[in-house]
Prior knowledge:
Layout: E1 4-15, E2 18-29, E3 33-37, H1 44-51, E4 59-64, E5 68-69, H2 75-81, E6 83-86, H3 98-110, H4 112-116, H5 122-135, H6 150-162, E7 168-172, H7 180-193, E8 198-202, H8 206-212, E9 215-220, E10 223-228, H9 230-234, H10 237-244, H11 248-255
Parallel strand pairs: 3-8, 3-9, 6-7, 7-8
Antiparallel strand pairs: 1-2, 1-4, 4-5, 9-10
The structure holds adenosine-5'-triphosphate (ATP) and magnesium ion (MG).
Amino acid sequence: MAGTIVYMEDVTVDFSGFKALNRVNFFIDKGELRFLIGPNGAGKTTLLDVICGKVRPEKGRVVFGDDTDILRLSEHRIARCGISRKFQTPSIFANLTVFENMELSLKRKRGIFSSLFYTMNSKDMHKIFSTFEVVGLKGEAHQKAGSLSHGQKQWLELAMTIIQEPMLLLVDEPVAGMTGKERSRTGEILMEIAKEKSVLVVEHDMNFVRHFARKVTVLHEGGILCEGTFEHVKNDPVVIDVYLGRGGEEKEDALS
Ligand SMILES: Nc1ncnc2c1ncn2[C@@H]1O[C@H](COP(=O)(O)OP(=O)(O)OP(=O)(O)O)[C@@H](O)[C@H]1O
Ligand SMILES: [Mg+2]
């Protein structure tokens, strides 16, 4: 899998004079699991918003895959091209079972008209259960989604996103509100997903990032500050100064 999955060049997002992103150059390789970190208000969520078409930059270029110009496409078309976003608040249907939620997600991919005449075939059934294997929800398939734990709901949401077969998955703060065990499990799930897809994860939990990140990008005041392995960025004096705090090691431990 050679080449970049998404490529941003000189991207500026201006909110009434405030530059949430300021001339950002950023790219992710195909098959990469990338972590994006940085202080509150750094522009992390805005960067995800630009990639999925929710926010339009004033300036710059964003290319998906070999030559798809994202800035010319609607949010809906971008999703159909293969970019999926998992939002923090789960959008699952609490009164439906875990399986039924997955069925709905498959239908959504087909669009309204073809989904009207849709009947589940064995291939789709297999797809749903193999996705359950990835997120560990096989045993909960026939349980109401509303009865799942907070972590399980997030995993169901991830499952509903990946069954739509995106090429790039964007995830904003996936472990917020989770227990330690749920965090580890989420990291394993993201690594499993990244075997087949490119994944961009925004996260504040340094312990989580330390365990699961291969390459980390640090954003600060709308610009990229540093990029590299966790060890590399954690020892960068500027990163320590603006994000981890002076004596970054203590701050990092406090976050874990
Ligand atoms: N729609 C908007 N209108 C005006 N300002 C905005 C808008 N969205 C974000 N901002 C501002 O842009 C800056 C970057 O916001 P963003 O949400 O991308 O930060 P973040 O890095 O995700 O922060 P956090 O870690 O707190 O989630 C912030 O100062 C925010 O207040
Ligand atoms: Mg954010």
